[in-house]
Amino acid sequence: MKLAIDGITLSPDQNEESIEKILRDRYGLDFQFRWKIIRKSLDARNKSKIVFRYRILADLPDDVSESLLKSRPEIKTYHENGFTASQRLKGEKICIAGSGPAGLFCALRLIEYGADVDIFERGKAVDERVDDIQRLEAAGDLDAESNVLFGEGGAGTYSDGKLMTRTSRPETAWFYGKLYDLGVSDEVLYDARPHIGTDRLRGLVRSIRKTILDSGSRIHFSERVQDILIVDGAVKGIVTSRGREVGCSVFVLATGHSARDMYGLLRKKAVVMEKKGFAVGLRIEHPKELINSIQYGRSKFAPVLPPADYRLAYNNKKSGVGIYSFCMCPGGKVINSSSEKNMLCTNGMSYSTRDGAFSNSAIVATVEPGVFNDDALSGIEFQRKIEDMAFRAGGGGFFAPAQTLKAFMKDTVDSALPEVSYLPGVTPSAAAEYLPAWIIDEIKSAMKYFERRMKGFAFPEAVLIGAETRTSSPVRILRDDSFQSVSVGGLYPAGEGSGYSGGIVSSAVDGIRIADAIALRPGSGIVAAAERIGKSGLPAEIT
């Protein structure tokens, strides 16, 4: 019987091979057995006793397992989430727009069902993206179709590469297993906060591309979907930027939260959308060693521990606004994540080693739909206004407006700024030049709370770099329980651009679930898949 065992801890200087001896001594196991790590997390709450916590999967005889289950509350029966796809979609042609996590993992799952998939990606393959991004950082020259947001792998390819998730859906295990099959370290299978990094993500998307192409399916780079052909309320095909008309009755829309032109097309096609909340603010950058010292204190293990991260949140009970850290990047850098000329927004990323001199995070305030008018796309216009003003405040050329925390709290402009990671550079500016006053006030109030939670976080020379506007989609494309648009049959909005997911893992899982929903639609005849998904339910929204 397979058992999940919690309560195993090691100090940072202990070898993980000692886990077997701990299991043997603690539970009296005097025979050979198989075991592996299925979860690992760093617990630094007590800085005088920093430990790694483990969950172990052990395969033990049934009689021993039954006895342990009765006497040891930290032991539970382990249930694996398996998936075996039939070839019931064999030969069916399916089109996908977007090669981010949702589009790619939807394609991988559909291919296992036997489908013939065409992915249309407005941006370039990952290696060509690197050149375009380097040119943006060196000379402020933005390619609006190939950048941090658009291109193979989507926005996730140029990020911290975090693979954490709060969803426990069975598809999540398939996602991590697929990453492992594609060559990612087995740490993704058990680390509580798995991190790949931009450099390794590039290799991953190349492996995914090879898998898709080897199956006989296709990826069309630098080819944007510019029209959706709809007849009698159902998808009949698409038209691309190369003038090609491609017939299909199933179209997965996975273009991401920044494909603003696609939202405009959907409105013209009378696809039902609604505005949704998101968050806006700026990036804060500290010296990495400062964050390490705050989080690890004087622990003797600090030199061997990974670069420290943090997660902060504050709820202003008076205003109802939430302020929180987002996409924290230890040892990373602040990057330009703009997708439109003369509009500036930022994000964060890191490499697998996280060996940069700085650590950064977005500090953002929630923006509720009630702030806007009734137009479903009014949140996009709110973002654009801030990005336009941030570009101007930076002085053009995609230099970013920046301010020390000390100046930010006093509403002054710095005469000079400390060194930062952002390229091509920063310009001393006041956040008031691009952020609404109410957002600035909310962030100021939160900083006082954050300092109480993390003594030293309000470091006067920390640098605030603006603006952070693309935390999530400000639009939701309404879909029903079959994952299809409520207004157009065969149109499957997926991932962050749909407004139903956020982050690499939840977007990938959303794409996987959509692939399953396509296989389950009436007439597909996939009884086994229907029974499998029916056990866990098929709600319309990822949470």
CATH superfamily of the largest domain: FAD/NAD(P)-binding domain
Helices, by number, come to 13
**Radius of gyration, whole Å:** 24 Å
Q: Approximately what portion of the residues adopt beta-strand conformation?
A: 15-25%
- Gap between N and C termini: 32 Å
In CATH, the architecture of the largest domain is 3-Layer(bba) Sandwich
Kindly state the number of beta strands: 22
What is the CATH first-level class name of the largest domain?
A: Alpha Beta
- Which sheet architecture does the biggest sheet show? 8 strands, mixed
Ranges where pLDDT stays below 50 over 5 or more residues in a row are 525-543
Overall residue-averaged pLDDT value = 91
Query: In terms of structural class, how would the helical and strand content be classed?
Result: alpha+beta
Shape: globular
Overall helicity: 25-40%
What is the domain tally?
3
CATH topology type of the largest domain? FAD/NAD(P)-binding domain
